[in-house]
Amino acid sequence: MAPNAEGLSGAMEEGVVDVREVEGAKCFVLDTESMVRPRHVEKDVQYRILRLENGLEAFLMSDPETDKSAAAVDVRVGYLSDPQDLPGLAHFTEHMLFYSSEKYPKEDEYSKFISEHGGFCNAFTSAEDTNYHFDVNSGDFAEALDRFAQFFVAPLISKDGVGREINAVNSENSKNLNSDVWRNMQLWRHLSKPDHAFHKFGTGSIDTLSRMPKEKGKDTHEEMLSFYSGNYSANLMKLAVYSRLPLDEIEHLVASKFSKVKTLNKAADVFPEDPFHPTDHQRLMVRAVPIRNVHALDLQFLIPPEDEVYRYTPCHYLSHLIGHEGEGSILKLLKDLKWATSLSAGPSPESYSSHSLFLISIELTDEGNDHVEECCKIVFQYLELLRREGIQEWIFEELKNVGETKFHFRDKQSAGYYVREICSGMQVYDRSDLLLAIHQVPREFREDAIRAALDVMTVDRARVLWLSPAHKGKVSGVEPWYKTEYEAEPMSEALAGELRSCGLNERLRLPARNQFIPTNFDLVEPEEGFDRPRMVRKTESSEVWYKPDTRFKTPKGQVYLSLVMPESYATPEAAVCTNLLTKLLVDSMNEVTYYAEVAGLAYAVQSTTTGMQLIFSGYSHKLLVLAEEVLRRLLAYEPNEERFGVLKEQMQKDFENTKFDQPYQQAIYHTSILCLQKKWHIEEYLDVLSRLSFAEFQEFLGRLMRRVSTQSMFLGNLTEAQCVGFSEKLEDIFAEAGSRPTFGSQAPEKRVMELPAGAGRSYSRPVGNEDEENGAVNIVFQIGLDSPKRNVTLQLWVQIAERAAFHSLRSVEQIGYIVCVMGWDSHQVKNVYFILQSSTHHPVAIDASVEKFLVEFEKRLAEMPDQEFADQKQSLKQSKLEKLKNLAQEGKRHWKEIEEGTLSFRRQEVEVEELEGVTLAELREFHVRHFERGSKERRKLSVRIISGKTPKREDAGEGERIEDVYKFKRGLQTYSLI
After folding, report:
1. What region holds the Peptidase M16 middle/third domain (predicted)?
2. Is 421 within a domain?
């Protein structure tokens, strides 16, 4: 390498601080001194930005502490650039690049390498970008990067793979067809100028990529090659790399591998034309029929491009106010009127660089569905309030303060996610702003920029989408790709006139100043040797665990609190009432807690099978203040009958809508019903809700808190004295409310059914949604109770099997888009799940394919070379010893040990020690015992979700069928608790 090589650079262009030569290729080093960097989380990370001679720009990060390295490339071309007659071509191209390359011609070589070395790889196609990314164990990064670079240097885009990947794209599209999110996005696009790129269907399907091209005499493979060669140009690519290597070594790797990428020196495609006709597509009222039982109201506005004014964050300012949930907000008023349960506001996912879209989404109640025009009026009254009050600098500065604090004290992210975000941001943001901009931190107050967005949020530019099952049979339009039934008409003159002259509403006002914004970031000095949680208090009613932050040195904390209440899950009625209480509690506190959430504090309250769990996290300065406020309100809570009715209705809909979940999710749910000793069914909950009265709910609350015990963990920038003091105060609060500790005999038991050994069992259910064309199966192999040796042997088996299964069952057999093999913990019982979903293969046939795969996999294990086995063990070891990245990860890990009673806080180290002794012979024996058909120790359960649109099967497959779930469970033993 030759810094400042004489005669190499000539006069330096602006922003270039150095020019080097790496293996004959010029490498321009760009200025990073002006770039704002996080003061805390990346204080030891070094940065460098390069531009290679071919125009590719690369952002290099050297972090000596990272055990995972990562890279991502963002290509500035997406589905907006698809040919009009080949929808989905950009997405299909993304799929095809994973096959092979001239340097690595073996199919699936890249993905296999990443998987076998502790990594993950993926890609996505959006409107204007295609993004490829991976992470891998740091010691294998150079080899992984070389394979990755071949995507852009010399891919082998084999014609043999075209049919398979068209099927993969079609399966991906198939799983989205009954998703209201995807359907709504495409409906918004459909309601635009037909010849505009915005109108396109980006995913693709077997129709768009196979049938339609053939009818027009086009070869999809040739079209894809043309698309790749015409758009995958180095000057349109941004690369981000994160590694523990020194910057000079990363630079050499990048320059030597990516300088070979060809450049066309072409400009990125732009789409400046307005996508909407002012009379056909604006001031528009659309009625549409959703898949789920939901009423919703969306208002969409075309606003000036956010990318051009990102420093002033107009969308962030407006979404903060319009989406606020405190007193005086749109949502608070709609809730008081019993018309809505939730509201969100912000940039629409349909936005792109030339045009931003702002979306306000309101979930309506049944009563609100009868007052849609009044709901619209309240929104426009709030917009009028914002115009009359003017753009408030103090609100912007508050958001800037919160944003900068979050930026400088943000949690460390996974390397793979971070590089993906950075290279996407490089396409849009200036170098000096890049790191701030990808975290949406406001930079500079510009009233005119915010005003420009607000001023176009008018009735005449509004696009209103009203979703309701009540529209079924009353609309005549059908969106062509997702078959959404809709009707689009100009907003009536009467309504438009009323909204234009809506005036102000005295119940709407701007939010108050936020009292939860932290100001104290001092760090607690932890005691020596505090490397795991310790029990610091135990009484008749409480157990308190504590661990200070010894890793991350951040002014944040975590509080986990489990309220053990024997009454809470005793019956389906009790479970429903406890769940409803959590929702009512959150609802009643929202006007206060929303301010805390804006300021960087978070909390969650949820019912469990043992009672209730509360989790608080965020800046330690006011964390315990929030926790105490929530708990006091819980114990003093007096239910409101109106809110009871609204949230009971919402809860009922939520349970009813589970029938529209993805089939594989339904399979996992029914697996839990079969395998957990005590788990009430959604059908039971719905029966309870249909009869539950307010008086019955009140009566239940009167006895719920009679006996309560607590288990808690405090983690982070908190002192032991603070935590013990808080727990003492908590005991006093419960005692004042009349609660007594639980009896020892009431200790909760979380028992798991022991599946029968030998012949497998199967359970079949029809898919909940009759229009769903996908079926699914979850094939469970129950391995046994938690133990270090068993755990690592299972993890090693899964690590080797998951990539092999993905290639065999998805790539070769083309079963479907969702093919997953994973370890699954049911409390202390270890399992292996094979989760597959398909629109072309019946679940019984999928089961047979999995059995065939297991036979093939046994042969692979039998023939596995010792060195490959050693490499697999080393990869698992590195994954298990991967450093925790943030306090949240540490909290989840420790709390699981406390909650389950296992208390193995050194689990990773102990299991790695056991891993050293696992032999290949033991792994083969593990496979034979748990997966070989005919093994007397195999415990297999197939949970099948059957679609009426899947080809019929006469045979039921192997294994005894379960006809009565509860009779089946009564005949089983449960695993003993540790």
Report:
1. 407-687
2. no
Cβ–Cβ under 8 Å, residues 805 and 818: no
The predicted model gives 472-497 an average pLDDT of 98
Q: pLDDT tier at 6 (50, 70, 90 boundaries)?
A: very low
Which amino acids are annotated catalytic? 94, 165
Q: DSSP assignment of 671-727, as one string?
A: HHHHHBSS---HHHHHHHHHH--HHHHHHHHHHHTSB-EEEEEEEES--HHHHHHHH
Secondary structure letter of residue 8 according to DSSP: T
Give the mean model confidence (pLDDT) for residues 626-654: 96
CB atoms within 10 A of CB 427: 19
Positive or negative, the Cα torsion across 880, 884, 889, 891?
Answer: positive
Taking the CA atoms of residue 307, residue 311, residue 312 and residue 315 in that order, the dihedral angle to the nearest 10 degrees is 40
Whether residue 428 lies inside any domain: the answer is no
Same domain, 803 and 686: no
Element (DSSP H or E) covering residue 448? helix 447-455
Q: Show the tokens assigned to 388.
A: 């009359």
735 and 777 in a single domain? The answer is no
Residue 978: predicted pLDDT: 57
Among 104, 192, 187, smallest CA distance to 149 is for 104
d(CA 820, CA 296): 33
Final residue belonging to a domain, choices 500, 517, 548:
500
CATH for 94: 3.30.830.10
DSSP collapsed to 3 states, 84-148: CCCCCHHHHHHHHCCCCECCCCCCCHHHHHHHHCCCEEEEEECCCCEEEEEEEEHHHHHHHHHHH
Same domain, 356 and 390: yes
340-362: per-residue pLDDT in tens?
999 999 999 889 999 999 999 99
- Burial environment of residue 181 by CB neighbours within 10 A (0 to 12, 13 to 18, 19 or more): exposed
Total domains, the chain: 4
In this predicted structure, what is the pLDDT of residue 1? Answer: 35
Domain span including residue 681: 534-746
| Burial of 353 from C-beta contacts in 10 A (0-12 / 13-18 / 19+) | buried
pLDDT at position 533: 97
Asked if the structure places residue 11 within a domain, the reply is no
- pLDDT value of position 8: 36
Residues 246 and 314 in one domain: no
Cα–Cα dist 88/108, whole Å? 22
Residue range 847-877, pLDDT digits in tens: 999 999 999 999 999 999 999 999 999 999 9
Same domain, 155 and 23: yes
CB contact set of 795 (below 8 Å; sequence gap of 6+): 823, 876, 880, 911
Are residues 781 and 637 part of one domain? Answer: no
